[in-house]
Amino acid sequence: MRILDYMKDHFLFLDGGMGTLLQAAGLQPGELPERWNVSHPEEIIKIQQSYFDAGSNLVLSNTFGANGLKFNDEELEAVIFAAVRNAREAASRSSGAQEKFVALDIGPLGKLLKPYGDYEFEDAVAMYSKSVRLGVQAGVDVIFIETMNDSYDTKAALLAAKENSDLPVFVSNAYGSDGKLMTGASPAAMVAMLEGMHADAIGANCSLGPDQLTGVMEEYLRYASVPVLLKPNAGLPRSENGKTVFDVTPSAFAESVGKLLEQGIRIAGGCCGTTPDYIRAVVEKACSIQPVPTEAKEISLVSSYTNAVQFGEEPILIGERINPTGKKRFQQALRENDIDYILNEALKQQDAGVHVLDVNVGLPEIDEPAFLLHAVREIQAVSDLPLQLDTTDPVAMEAGLRAYNGKAMVNSVNGKEEVMNAVFPLVKKYGGLVVALTLDEDGIPETADARVAIAEKIIRRAAEFGIEKKDLIFDPLAMTISADTGAAMATMESVRRIHNELGANTSLGVSNVSFGLPNRNIITSTFFALCLQEGLSAAIMNPYAQEMMNVYHAFRALHNMDENCMGYIEYAQNLPTPATPSTTAAAPTPVASTSEAGHAPASELQTAIVRGLKEKTGILTHAMLAEKKPLEIIQSEVIPALNIVGADFEKKKVYLPQLLMAAEAAKSAFEEVKLAMAASSDEETANTTRCAFVLATVHGDIHDIGKNIVKLILENYGFAVSDLGKDVPAQKIVEETIRLHAPIVGLSALMTTTVPAMEETIKLLREQAPWTKVCVGGAVLTQEYSDAIGADKYCKDAMETVRYAEEVDQLQNK
Amino acid sequence: MDPRDVIAEALKEDTRTIPQYLEFEAPALNEREWLRYAGVPFYDQDSVRATPEMTALMNQARQLLAGQCAYRVSFLVAPITRDEEGYPILPFAQHSEKLRANLEGCDKVVLFAATIGTGIDRLIQRYERVKPQLALMLQGLGAERVESLCDAFNQAVSQAASLRSGEVSALEAPSMTHRRFSPGYGDLPISVQKEFLACLDAERRLGITLNDSFLMSPSKSVTAIIGICG
Fold it and tell me: pTM (2 decimals)?
């Protein structure tokens, strides 16, 4: 019988702990338990047989750490084949009459993936794939991925299982006492991602006892449409009179697990500290419990790497600002690979209150697949909002979906066969909530009838690809009323009917409705309110438009979605009061530390920069642009202000955070200047008036705050910084230096262990880019170190780097 | 359960204990240390130099971190035996002169790993590109938090050790324990981290992993050894 068929009507019992039993059998600390499959097969078979004898249906092969990081190819193959053979032998020796299955056990690689660690996602997929392929060859019934404490690592393992086998895959995560994974994911977020990728059973194991995991299990049961599994520890280990004991006994364990079986858990076993006695107790307890049928939940979820967002309950706001259409400054950022600009836009929208970020980086002249992949990774490193990947290029869509940590929104598909055939297979593989536009080969229908008909067709076609209605969200298309005054009525009717008749979610790019009209926000926000009233689930919108946010908060309050109106009150009380900069700006009061004669800021703008007032600096610069030329403002205002702060920092009158605050404020001045110049399509760039500067944290080092500080200050001083990031291989630094013919390179290292990488980089630079000067910095570096590894200059802080770069730049110009 | 009691139980054993897991309450904030780690060595909140912008930045960092830390420790206790040359034999391989001196007169060691989790790393990651001054303050705050956690654990060990020796007064405690000593310090190479963390089961219990340069993730994690006198 196949395991999934068996599970339809039965509980599935798993095995219990392995580690403690192996230690009792003589495994030494530090010895790899997987080697015992080959060296001590009888011991392994004995333990696994005792689990089958106790009533386990599914025993995991002894391969928790059997991966390519711990074993070479030859040994890995031997270990996995022996492990599966042992488990099969245990099943055949056992006298138990129950159905018996064997799973390939896969534990985490023990490497933290980027961006928090330094291991590449695709390398992890490749590592897991190796183990999966061997397990499939050895003939297991199930792939069992367990004890995963990071969402991205879990995705890598599940993707490897799906790409290399047709077997059922069970996925189990290790939750902490806060009910989250180590890297922050909630159970709902994991359910969204794992079900999106079609795991066959999901749940939790290890770390805690069954009682402490009750909350996590309840969340799984609330959202999951597949069987939920639980494999907890026997509580927490402690020492008692010289012996290791776990604080939950077999009978108490069975009691707690039994309660969860009654609530709907379908697969149960034990992890650390549990023995065949625990499994026997659970099996006996379950005799008197009727399995609860696993029901499909009609809940539409997307997720980031930490949390899930649910559609269909409250209105969901999707920020539209990461999109180059019609935005010159954004297009410039894309062309210059200025990812920081995009990250700023992401965080600003998050602060403004959106729930999902639309990400569109399509420009004719850029490599969209590569850039979308890059943007997804970078945005996910700073923001925990789910993303909506917005592209018409299926190659870019796949690159983005594959790299995405969580379950993304996919924007978009429509009623055209060609588009559905390209997009639905990607959604089936990687998961996603798909925006479906109600248009087809004949264009956008005028009537609601025709749009609903297209929606029905899309639902049917999606089902043929194995995609459920809950993973579709229909966009019945807002058209401008300036062209057709009946357009809004048709859209609103479509929203209502898709919501009521098809029971599906809807989303609209609301702002189209007012195209071509003056004061568009009046029309757009009113239309938004009317659509919400018709049942609209989500809107792609501009969160900086106060009228839109007004509607959102008022609608929630009026629709009894806002307990005690607290959300509205908080919003409404913090609305900015309209004011002009000239009336709000205080008189230029010099900062105490810069009050010496001849050294004080000469204007209001300079004071704002010196004090690090970012917003005020932006406002003042904007006002000044009406009178002065952009470059004049940089020369006569921004640079002098920076010089004041820089000099004060060197004299230890202000500290690093204050230097950075000033640099950030100056950046907002530059940003205003760039905007003005982009608008006037001036060819001259605002503040890259000095030479190129290649900057990197060396290979092996993943800490780069010091390097980022240097970058910010250098940019302020007009250097064209090419920031290669952290953990950068020497060859990459050399290539970039050659590409730009950069006269100066800055290298950062935090740890003594990475100084050799710095030395190697310098050596390579001397060979291949002999013209360049190399300055070094970082926590462990000293003048002596710097001399020893052959750097041209040791810079103890950001200002010293600037001074040195200025020297190099002047030499260049001579 | 009071960490001191757990540690006291472990100290009673004659053989090496299994790694044990402790959760601590948030230790009191040491503002001076925080600022020192953030590159502000001589800052006084009450002085004339204190700017409203700095105060606002500090408050923001504190608020962001609230609820984002879990103060967790995995530790084990092992008796010390010594080889013919007098070097201590510990649960991980090493041959360090400095550590040998540090453990002079001790009959037991406590090995521990402490972490405040990945929440702080997410915050730093989030702000280092878009608001580096805030990332810097968070960086300093995280360093202070994990050091304060180590101090709290260290103090619990001292108190438990004095209980063991029959001293009722915690004031006697410091004489029972030696100064904590970390891999990477002096002649104890950072490469011992791998075995050190493995014997504490730190990956599974605390989520601490190593990269090829032996850097720990979460970044605000500490490993150390504390010697205990008989």
Answer: 0.86
